[in-house]
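Final report, closing paragraph on structural work. Over the funding period we assembled a curated collection of sequence-structure pairs, and we close with a single example.
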Amino acid sequence: MIPFSSDARAAAPVEFGKVVIYGVGLIGGSFALALKSARAVGEVVGFGRRPATLAQACELGIIDRVGVNPAHELADADLVLAATPVGQMPAVFARIVPYLGAHGVVTDGGSTKTDVARAAYAACGDQYRDKIRQFVPAHPVAGAENSGVTAAKSDLFQGRKVVLTPLPENDDASLDRVKRAWSLCGGELCELTPEQHDRVFAAVSHLPHLLAFALVRDLAERPDAPLFFDFAASGFRDFTRIAASHPEMWRDICLANRAALLQEIDAYQQQLRDFKIALQKNDGATLEQGFTVARHARRAWGEKRRETQ
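Its predicted structure, as stored:
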């Protein structure tokens, strides 16, 4: 993990003359604002599906211009960020590759990585196979339940992990440039393989989101749903906060990482079965033993997080 120095950030020169961002929402917008706050970028150009969103990003000062012609904008771009839902990245990469200049690098903000790496290889193909060295996948672990351009903020990545999953073809210059960009945003860098990344995040991120969505949906579809929501308090709030997350984004994440996520669902269902059997048998000892293991692990994790903050 690479520590971030606020002093180094304050003194950072303009290192990226032009940054092009596909998807100016929470992640893309925050990336732009962080680099601007660090005085590390000369110009930010935004591409996206919705003209109104891009216009709003301009009004908020998140981007400087709306991109129109990829050939014109990408040829001299120093850095390109793909911050769309992961399901859109194959199409985005296909638009980027033909026009990417020799000195430009591409990173992304997707929550899954084997599919992103696969999309990069497919976009480069045989015709542009040398350009795969310029694609450095990344995952900033800094999401929020609110999404969209108005949720973007310059300190979103401050002190948060940014997981890089370099490809074997990445050259040192491309990797260093992507590391530098995320460091300037305040991220604490670490590296995993794409496969390691997806296995870990299926357990600690993708499954929790699925569980939160399932619980809230279950209550919302009951005939007396208002009664339950009227009495929901802090426990429900803390457990289900992430159920307010962007449905399209999480649809794509779950489908992209479905193999690992299905394994985690099986493991979780086994835990539920164990607790269900204990309840059926009125077996308080088994319940308490399971709760104790979870309590100790959760407290140890919390203490470790406090020590590193």
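The mean pLDDT is 93. The radius of gyration is 21 Å. We thank the funder for supporting this effort.
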